[in-house]
Amino acid sequence: MSRIGRMPVVVPSGVEVTVQGSYVKVKGPRGALEYTFPAVIKISKDDGEINVQRPSDEPKLRALHGMTRAIINNMVVGVSKGFEKVLEVNGVGYRAEMDGSNLVLYVGYSHPVKVEPPEGIKFEVEAKTRLIKIGGYDRQVVGQIAANIRSVRPPEPYQGKGIKYLEERIRRKAGKAGKAG
User: Fold this and answer.
1) Half-sphere exposure of residue 51: CA atoms within 13 angstroms, side-chain side
2) For residue 136, which of 97, 78, 176 has the smallest C-alpha distance?
3) Which of 2, 23, 92, 151 lies deepest, with the highest CB count within 10 Å?
4) CA–CA distance, 149 with 180 (Å, rounded to integer)
5) Residue 86 CB: number of other CB atoms within 10 A?
């Protein structure tokens, strides 16, 4: 059995979970999420835990088993604690600012780039450290918005300018000077 899929999802206090067949709805202090899973995976809720079972050891079902449990866990954690991604802006003159709830990026283009947050997403900018914090209760949306912001100006390997994840390491290249010799 899958190590991930076999672990129960513990539901913290303040989080309401509704399971109807393969449909799961999770409601908490930060928001509400719902998802319909494949019908072959059995989801059951009993005394503060959610368990996921699969009918056989077929490879496709094994993959669905772990994925289903992981998505349910992300839903529960998201509505109770939330998720956050941190991006870092590097480069001379590159900066990020807030304009109301919108994020405005100045990253070397002739115009500023505005990013509007979708529902459930909040931006936060630390001007001194050039950090952009993206927070929300849906892990998939937080990751996708972070990837979209990074794609505005991805980091380049020669000078390291651009927008990168805080924990990301950029492999640096020597450039023309490193070629001679």
Assistant:
1) 7
2) 78
3) 2
4) 36
5) 16
| The length of the chain, given as a count of residues | 181
Considering the chain, what is the average pLDDT of its residues?
Answer: 93
How many angstroms separate the CA atoms of 32 and 76, rounded? 9
Residue 43 predicted with pLDDT over 70: yes
- For residue 77 the two structure tokens come to 């954690």
Question: How far is 112 from 58, CA to CA, in rounded Å?
Answer: 51
pLDDT in tens, 101-132: 999 999 999 999 999 999 999 999 998 889 99
Q: In this prediction, what percent of the chain has a pLDDT beyond 70?
A: 97
Q: How far apart are CA 5 and CA 90, in angstroms?
A: 40
pTM of the model: 0.89
Domains, the chain, in order of start with CATH, read: 3-80 (3.90.930.12), 83-165 (3.90.930.12)
